[in-house]
Amino acid sequence: MKKILSVFAIASIGGLTSLGVSHYLQDSSSTQTSLMSYQTPVKYVNLPAAPESSINFTAAAEQSIHAVVNVKTTYPLQSNNQLYMYDPFRDFFGQRTPQKQEAPMSTGSGVIVSQDGYIVTNNHVVDGADKIEVTLNDKRTYTADVIGKDPTTDLALLKIKETGLPFMTYGNSDNVKVGEWVLAVGNPFNLTSTVTAGIVSAKGRNINILDGDPSKGQFPIESFIQTDAAVNPGNSGGALVNTSGELVGINSAIASNTGSYTGYSFAIPVNMARKVVADLLEFGEVQRAFIGVSIRDLDAKLAKEKSINELKGVYVDGLSAGGSGEEAGIREGDVITKIGEVNVNNVPELQEQISRFRPGNKVTVTLKRNNQEKLIPVTLKNKNGNTDVVEKPKVEVVSTLGASFEDVNSSDMKKLGIENGLRVNKLSAGKLLSAGIKEGFIITSVDKKKITSINDIKSALETKKGGVLIEGVYPNGMRAYYGFGM
Question: Does residue 236 have an active-site annotation?
Answer without folding.
Answer: yes
